[in-house]
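Human:
If only I could read C-alpha cells as easily as an amino acid sequence. I am handing you a single protein, as its sequence and its fold in C-alpha cell form. I hope you can help me see how the letters and the C-alpha cells relate. Thank you; the sequence and its C-alpha cells follow:
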Amino acid sequence: MRPFEKCPVCGGEVETKQVEKLLRGGRNTVSMKVAAEVCLHCGERLYTEDVVKSFEEIRGKLRKQEFSCLKMLGQSFTVAENWPNKAIRPTV
C-alpha cells in the first residue's frame, strides 16, 4: 500500500516520482534525488515519515558542518552587495 492515496491539498491523484530536493542548514546546501508522491493536479510533493526524518538529520549535519556523509559537488555563490540591479540581493 502506498503511503498517500490522494493529495491532502487538492484531492488529486498522486504518483511516485524521483524528485530533486534542496536542503539548507546554516550557510550550506545539499542537493539530492528522493522518492516522493507527487500530485498530478497541483504538484504537491509528499514524503514518507522516514524521509522527512532523514531531511532533518541532514539539515542538522549541515548546521554543525559535519560533512563526512556528504559528497562535495562544487561551490555555491550569491551575488555581491554591489550588484547593479537593486531588485536582486545576496542570499547571505
Observations:
- Helices lie at 49-64.
- Residues 6 and 13 are 5 Å apart (CA to CA).
